[in-house]
Amino acid sequence: MNKKPLDYDFDRLYSEDYTLGQLKKFLLRNIESNDICHWHERNTFFIDELIGKLDLSEDSHYLDLGCNIGTFAIEFSARGKAATGVDLSQDAIRTAELMASYLQLQRSPTFVHGDISDASVFSENSFDVIIAQDILEHLHDDVLKKTLENCFTWLKPGGYFVYQTHPTKYDYLFHSRGWKSLVRLLPLVPSLIHGERKFKRAVERYHNYIINPISKFLTGQTREQKIEHDAHCNLLTASEVVTKVEDSGMVSLFVKTENMYKSDRDKKRAIFFANREYFHRNIYGIAWKPII
Asked: Which of these, 76, 96, 211, 269, has the minimum number of CB atoms within 10 Å of its CB?
């Protein structure tokens, strides 16, 4: 169980510098080149391809979970939708409010400074859609469990939970840079002759019985323990995400993995691993709150 360390330094990880970095990305969001800003592709895919094809009414209310500077809340407000953003960073919320005011949106979003693991932040059955874009990987298991349970509570019956998480659990094996990364991949090459199920099992065993023991011997920590204090502190597989989502009471409608960005698809190692789920850096999906 990956529980939040008592000395987890939220203020350091999500400082004013981090907020400024997100703001720069936001200001470049309409530039289509991924080399300049990947947010254009994310916004187009997440809003138009996923949420845009759901059966939603014009008066649906959207929640941008862990919104930081309010990227998705602002995007939906610009389209005339009712949107709310919530984040634990007061600096980020202040920036979101300033940006929304500066853009003179068709419909102003609401921003809330609050802890998404606290059920009292919103009332029951408040939202038609909850958007969790690049947020799950930032929450330790205990916080993630509470947050998903809260999302179930805050969603209206028949509402949707739409999520994307990046990077994934075995990202370090397939996407680290340098010759050491390539050497680390060599033991997995023979398993490429097998189907997806056996390949996954080979990766899991390699991680559990070779990489983690070596890491424990050299550093005193497993891979999971080493990232506990990182911003990306909880890296998951697609099946693990689905399990956590369904444990909250929601029904998983679909989940998919892929490398969404061209730079990942063009890597030379993609020649061998491109069609393997554990090589994919992005997990996205939709869950639904049953109508009782």
From this structure: 269
